User: Fold these one by one.
Assistant:
Number 1:
Amino acid sequence: MSAVAFEGVTKEFAGGVRAVDSLDLVIEDHEFLVLLGPSGCGKSTALRMIAGLDDPTAGVVRIGDRIVNDVDPKDRDVAMVFQSYALYPHMTVRKNIEFPLDARKLPHAERNTVVQHAAEVLGLAELLDRKPAQLSGGQRQRVALARAIVRRPSVFLMDEPLSNLDAKLRVQTRVELVALQRSLASTLIYVTHDQVEAMTMGHRIAIMRDGMLQQVGPPQEVYDRPANQFVAQFIGTPPMNTFHAVASARGLEVADGAFAMVDGWAREPQDVIGGIRPEHLHLESLAREAPDGGALVVATVSMVEALGHERHVHCRMQNDDSIIVRVAASDPYPTTGEAVALRADAEHVHVFSTETGQRVALA
Amino acid sequence: MAVSISVSQRPVGRSIARYFVLIVMAGLILFPIYITIVNSLMEPTALANGPVWWPSHPTLSNYATAWTNAHVGRYLWNTVIVAVGITALQVSTAILGGYAFAFLNFPLKRLMFVMYLATLMIPGEVTIIQNVQTVHDLGWYNSYAALIVPFIATGFGAFLLRQSFLAVPADLQDAAALDGYGHWRFLRRVVVPICRPGIAAMALFAFLGAWNQYLWPLLVTSDDRYRTVQIGLKQLRTENLSSVTVVFAGTVLAFLPIALLLLAFSKQLVRGLTAGAVKG
Ligand SMILES: Nc1ncnc2c1ncn2[C@@H]1O[C@H](COP(=O)(O)OP(=O)(O)OP(=O)(O)O)[C@@H](O)[C@H]1O
Ligand SMILES: [Mg+2]
């Protein structure tokens, strides 16, 4: 019984900053939800309103079937892992982990078993008598996790817990966290601005921008069908190519050619923003005839980046929009300055409205 | 590497000059203390031709005289009571005030903080007459209350500890709130332990200030039972003109406790003064 719900929640700070704007979002019981967005979009503020550390200006926050707007943080049954870890510097690891239990007046023996267990789960058993200053970043992060899990809260909140770790440790901890969430079977709301974490960890992603929710859904769905141009470009590395185009019966027409679309464009020709991910573009030889007469786009190669496992071929189209094509490392690739023909997978062409940036439904 | 090179290449001459200046300054400061100690160990008659530089036949008789006949013992005891009382109360109120300014949000917080700071800019002498009157009206003339109560809260203490408390990360307060700790327990279990150096420095300042008070105790006491040691010394000087060695002995007795205290806490004192100036 620990679903979390935002109902029309707005948070306005003194000075008129709308950190969160009319947020409607339900996080299911036992769900792992990732809150994703650029810096300053209101992720932390949303999290802090669940914890009770910030009060909503308007709207209702629910945990389980309780409206918690007026409930004290300590009575909400949530635990939070802070970006800074917020360990108590004057206490040993053991004391830090024990601290929440201390406040709850758990009997001593029971406390010891709980602390010992948490320390073992997180590989901290050897470190219990150290102070936080004597730990590495990864160890501190695990102490913060241990402190959160000893309370067995029904909701976990994590605010960019991995952002202080180096790349290798981050990959490892990512996996551990997912396993941990599964074994704890609690609701977990996880804030990040790292899209790899978002794609790999959560059941669903909620993407925010300027305090407003852009899209919620399973990672693959958000990747495959981004709700707007912002989401399309925020998720994916390198990001989705977007360019000015005219949608017509021929497909997405650009200055020198067109990208085919599966069902074509049944409406009047219209100015749109086209979107194609780099992996859905292919380089064709210029000499070859396009199979459907014209569904090729001519472009000039401006740079080739080799990443080891693949290459990113940066091309400039005649209308000056640039576009990136992903090429497997084993495939042939063009040289800088060469003219190439681009072909898109017709089923992976996205169309966004020029005015609103929203996805335009095809067919 | 860079450090060792710069050390080995630093001109020796400059080093010598630097030490020379430091030694001269230390000598200037220590000289009066030395003379006081030496002369407190002399027979009263030995000083007929002015102060001596070296104790030829040291004796502790002056100390005995000062302690018993001149009541320095009693004065010291009074000073200890007053200084300890003032320190304990001042630290408690400063912790509470500093906490409020550092961690709570309340209406008119800024204005109140400015008012606290403003009290630092008013010289004590301006309010002293009114305060003496108040003490008289309360019937506290010649009492410990008169010596202690007016000093139990200072703007300076609250200000100093606020600065110290501001170094406690806000996340710790949030974490403690989630862990089930209210303000009182957060203060006791987290803020005070983390800010112990700052609090110790503040306590030391409070103690030194209280110990060295002169004007106020002079104005609100006349009875030997409540007089503090600084006034006692002054009295000693006027009453024992014949035996200046006793005055010297009394002076040594008065500063000995404070000197020991400073020696014991000098590390904390310096750390408190520079805390927040640099990170780490
Ligand atoms: N206490 C505050 N007072 C005023 N404005 C605030 C306060 N806290 C946050 N804001 C503002 O609200 C907006 C959202 O802040 P928030 O911390 O939620 O962003 P975030 O998405 O967590 O960003 P980041 O990824 O950098 O942590 C920002 O514009 C920020 O400046
Ligand atoms: Mg944040």
Number 2:
Amino acid sequence: MLQIKDLHANINGKEILKGLNLTVRPGEIHAIMGPNGAGKSTLSSVLTGNPVFDVTHGEVTFLGKNLLELAPEERANEGIFLSFQYPVEIPGVSMVNFMRTAINEQRKYRNLPPVSATDFLRLMREKKELVEMDNKLANRSVNEGFSGGEKKRNEIFQMAMLEPRLSILDETDSGLDIDALRIVANGVNKLKSPENASIIITHYQRLLEYIVPDFVHVLYDGRIVKSGDKTLALELENKGYDWIKQEVEGK
Amino acid sequence: MNDGRDASFDKFRALGFPTTQLENYKYTDLSQALSIDYGLNINRLNVPVNPYEVFTCDVPGIHSYLYFVVNDGFYPVNDNRNDTLPEGVIIGSLSEVSKLHPELVAKYYGKLSSTKNDGLVAFNGAFAQDGIFMYVPKNVQLDRPVQLVNIMRSDVDFMANSHNLIILEDGAKAQLLVCDHTVNDVHFVSNRVTEVFVAENASYEHYKLENTHNKTTNLSTLLIDQKDSSNVLANVITLHNGLTRNMIEIAVNGEHCDTTLAGMVIGDKNQQVDNFTSILHNKPNCTSRELFKYVLDDVSKGAFTGKLYVARDAQKTAAFQTNKNILLNRSAKMRTKPQLEIYADDVKCSHGATIGQLDESALFYMRQRGIPQKEARLLLMFAFTADVIEDIRIDALKDRMKLLVEKRLRGELSKCEGCVICQ
Ligand SMILES: Nc1ncnc2c1ncn2[C@@H]1O[C@H](COP(=O)(O)OP(=O)(O)O)[C@@H](O)[C@H]1O
Ligand SMILES: [Mg+2]
């Protein structure tokens, strides 16, 4: 589904991703862990086409298409969704209008007619219930004045609305209490299917108790330096990252 | 109306047309616009157009009392929708009313404008012969908005001077919507002065919508006088124009007044808009809020001056001013100048001005949800202007403005195709 080969990316001339390789197949859940500043958010930005980053080398294919040639909105409509580490506040744009526009743009991309008002409202209600989102939030401007936890929940709500093929969750669990964490995990698990895949970027093993990954990768200094199964997450939680650093520098 | 003419003319001779040498006009160069040899309709030529036949208003549900000023003359009313005005209300031609009710007109006419040291206002005093007159007697509340459509229609380059006089007695209530509209593709200058007197406990709303073509120079002066416990809202929106200068001065001469002054500009190509505004708090215990927003593209130019004056005994004044601007293009220019003069010590005043671009992180966030860049930009621009539209208290007009602003931002209203309100 997703193949990343020898990916290098810069911001303001500074290289952040330094030859990253990763393959994700349909139905898989990949966890990416790693110390602060390793390049995890950079990877999610580059995959979704954030123009702030320059890709200097490498290839990324998604469902057979050259992802790097597509505009951010095309990537989204091909089925890539990012739950932002820091969701953006957009004063004056209501959640309802935002979601309706997004849904209809996705449908337009797939040559479908716009969603009917009743279907849209039903969909909104359904997905709000799924993530136990307060009705009030849906009537406000996008993320404006939302608490940290509410923003994260709103990301999962949007994910549920858009039903992506590949969802990338960038530290969606940070700052969530245990109840919110369960809700987020539940949202992700409900979307799990043999056709869909997820990349879960996290610092903590905690989330991985609810969402069981097929693979765990360690991203360090712009590269994936170690991969394993879910036991690797436990090991990282117990031992920290120093042994990884030593392993990498020892090589 | 003729009483002050000589004095105005003398004042104009001394002042001349304003130049950029003057502090108040430094952002707007009128020299080119005023260098054209314009016709002036001093002999009161009639214009062969009946606006009541040509224009039908389509603000759904606005049901206004509709009036026209064609060039510089009030067009005789022949719309039976206006028959149902509440008793005592007078709306009509200023020059006619000044013959029928000379004492009423004399009590107010020129009382605000003659105190202004301004070449354009003086020129208007010397040459304006007509305009709308509106009188709402004590405790009468108009059940529908009054709509005034200023139409510029001429086959040659033309300058129109008109003067509007609006009087609300104690406890009266009225809403006025002014639409500026041009018909022919010649150079127009309009120089319009509006004086508004809002007595105790009265409530007045003034909406101005400009959608003219780019050869139009629209010079407008709005002077409002507020007495105790009165309430004023002015909202000036420029959707399409050539060169516009709005001079707005609201003098709060009573206690416990509330004042809202809002405005929006959407400019592109070489359009220019200068809103030169003053709110003068002369009495204590009043509140005011001012909000202006500009979206400028191409080589358009915007200017905003927000003068906020709080007199020494205007204690407990709460006055807030905001001017926010988005430049969509490097060549667009915005000048903003808050000008606070506060002489009272027990007040709450604030001002803020920003000039920026669309928020790139918000744009990316929307694109990540599948919304194309163009649409995302539009949503952000529309969101940016939303609070000015919220400051419209006529629902039908508010809904219509949402639509017009969206059309304008989409570039579907790129030229004046007849007054958008009155197509
Ligand atoms: N906008 C930016 N400008 C400059 N440097 C940046 C920017 N964003 C991220 N970086 C740098 O890129 C590196 C990787 O950051 P990031 O991908 O956010 O790490 P992670 O998500 O793994 O904590 C860090 O050194 C960070 O300082
Ligand atoms: Mg990060």
